[in-house]
Structure formats: C-alpha cells, structure tokens
Design a protein that fits this description.
Strand order of the largest sheet: 1-2-4-3-5-6
Number of helices: 12
Order of helices and strands: HHHHEEHEHHEHEHEEHEHH
Helix content: 25-40%
Number of strands: 8
Radius of gyration: 21 Å
CATH class of the largest domain: Alpha Beta
Shape: globular
Strand content: 15-25%
CATH architecture of the largest domain: 3-Layer(aba) Sandwich
Largest sheet: 6 strands, mixed
CATH topology of the largest domain: Rossmann fold
Length: 312
C-alpha cells in the first residue's frame, strides 16, 4: 500500500501539468489500479507495476488527439494566420486556407470546412490546431481536386468547445454554447459575408473534444451544415431529433480507452431511432485517434464534398 500512496502523491504532482489533464485520466482510478497491481509476491508485483506503468505511458503518448507539439511553419504555409476581433479586448485566433488563386478568379463560390481541434491543441500560438490537418488540406493535389476554404479556430487553453463532455455515454447539452464556440459561430457568420463561400456546402469536422463540439453545433444549428463529421466525441442523445436531416459520418476507435465508443454509438442509435440515416465507422483495432486513418482514405473526401444542402 505504500507504493500505492507514493503513486497517488506522484499523480497529484503530474496532474498539475495541463497536458496530463487533457487525457481525462483520473488519479483515483489510476491509483486504485496501481494499488491492486502492488499486491502479491515481489516478482509479480514488479511485473504488474511495470505493465501498468507502460500502459499509462501508451495512453498518454499514443491514443489521444490531445498530444501536440508546435506545428512546423513550413507545413502550414498555405494557412494564413488570422485574428478575429470579437469585441473590444477579446479576439479569437484562427487559420484560414483559401482555394488556390486561379480558382478564386473564377467568381464562383466554394465549400468551406470548419475544423474543431482536440483539447491538446488548445492555446494561443495559432498553429497547434493544424497539427492533424495541415499536410492533408494544404497538399497540392488535394487543393486542386477539392478547392475549398478551411477555417480552423483555436480554443484557449483553459476553455473548451463544450461545457461538459462524457467519456462513456450521453451528456446533457448546456443551455448556451461556450465562449469559444459562440465566437467561432460569429467568425463563420462574418467570413460567410466576406468570402465567396457556398452556404449550401458548409461542412464541420471535429476531433476528440472537437468531435463533442460538432455534436453540440448540430443541435444548436440543425440547418447550417451540409455535412458533419465528429471523431471520438460525445453529445446529447436527447437532441438527436434535431440532427436527422444532416448527413453525418461519425468515427470512433473500438479500443478507445479515453472516450468510450459508447458515446458515439448512443448518438448514432438515437439519430436512427429519430428517423435519420447517419453513417458510422468504428475501427475495431484503433484507439482514440481515428482521424489520421480517415483523412488518408479518398472515399471519405469523396463523400464529404458530394454533400449539399437540400432545400426543405
């Protein structure tokens, strides 16, 4: 038990680091796991603790969309660094990728993708939010095949896209959106006026906490998006009836130990029960990060850019 108490003290110290908190790993649960592992003969105790230690390290390093490092500026050259002035003294950093100049001269309107990053990309550097998408959307072949605007706001470190998330099931939606999400919608409204954006082809993609943000937006703005793609997030299944007319393709990892796939399964089940027909892909051998695989699947973008708003 002395080992368990030592581990608990260590976890309290580690818990002070923002990165660790971003993985939704609770000290009490881990401490309980370590205490159980410390029982038995010395050899077994050592092997158990060794296994648990590396399990914890793997959870932190590999299965979350939250782990981030500063993006290489060379990889985000096509994304313009912008600041949206919300009101006096308040602003929202975001990145904007435009269609290539030749396309813009055609006087046509283009689809737009709103991208909501995960908790690990929060901050104020106006760069980390592109960690998983810069090389995808700034690829010359991609830009030629699917000319579009990509809008990537960055949520502040101590805030989130939603008030509360669930890591195992449904979660009650807050009465009002969070400040960053509300400001993001103000940004979208402003850019829709200033840029040649096709209002019938506005898409939203979110990973991890950003996936929860997507579910939140679908309930608040049921007729805004032509398609929505939430990865590994949670939502309010009581709001499913508001989402039945929006084309949705949701993704989750069957081995996700950070956000249980039940969160997405419940949303999909509720939408289908309400009369919708969402797509759902659960990768049985993947953990939290399901977007890297999806973003490299040509069929995903073929589906996404084929979606258009249908007038009712």
């Amino acid at each position: 038990m002395a080992i368990g108490r030592s581990i608990n003290n260590l976890l309290k110290k580690v818990g002070e680091f923002k990165m660790f908190n971003q993985y939704h790993i609770h000290a009490k649960r881990i401490n309980k796991f370590f205490c159980k592992a410390s029982l038995g003969n010395p050899r077994r105790r050592f092997l158990n603790l060794f296994f648990v230690f590396w399990l914890l390290m793997l959870a932190i390093l590999f299965v979350s969309g939250g782990y981030s490092k500063n993006q290489d500026p060379k990889l985000i050259s096509g994304f313009e660094a912008k600041i949206f002035d919300v009101k006096l003294g308040e602003s929202l950093p975001y990145r904007l990728l435009r269609p290539v100049p030749d396309d813009l001269q055609s006087n046509q309107k283009f689809p737009a993708i709103l991208f909501l990053h995960g908790s690990g990309e929060r901050g104020s550097d106006n760069g980390k939010q592109l960690n998983y998408i810069a090389q995808i959307f700034d690829d010359p072949a991609m830009r030629q095949k699917y000319p579009c605007f990509v809008i990537a706001p960055q949520c502040p470190t101590n805030q989130n896209w939603v008030v509360k998330e669930s890591y195992s099931g449904s979660v009650l939606q807050s009465a009002e959106p969070t400040k960053p999400l509300g400001e993001t919608m103000e940004l979208i409204h402003a850019l829709s006026k200033d840029l040649p954006i096709d209002s019938g082809r506005m898409y939203v993609i979110g990973i991890s906490s950003g996936g929860s943000g997507v579910w939140d937006l679908l309930a608040r703005y049921p007729r805004l998006f032509a398609a929505a793609v939430p990865f590994s997030g949670s939502g309010d299944d009581k709001k499913a009836y508001l989402m039945v007319k929006t084309p949705i393709w949701a993704f989750h990892g069957g081995r996700d130990i950070l956000v249980n796939p039940n969160t997405t399964r419940m949303m999909i089940q509720a939408i289908r029960k309400a009369g919708g027909d969402p797509r759902y892909t659960e990768y049985p051998n993947l953990f939290h990060n399901t977007w890297n695989k999806t973003f490299h699947d040509p069929a995903f973008f073929q589906w996404l850019f084929a979606q258009k708003q249908v007038e009712n």
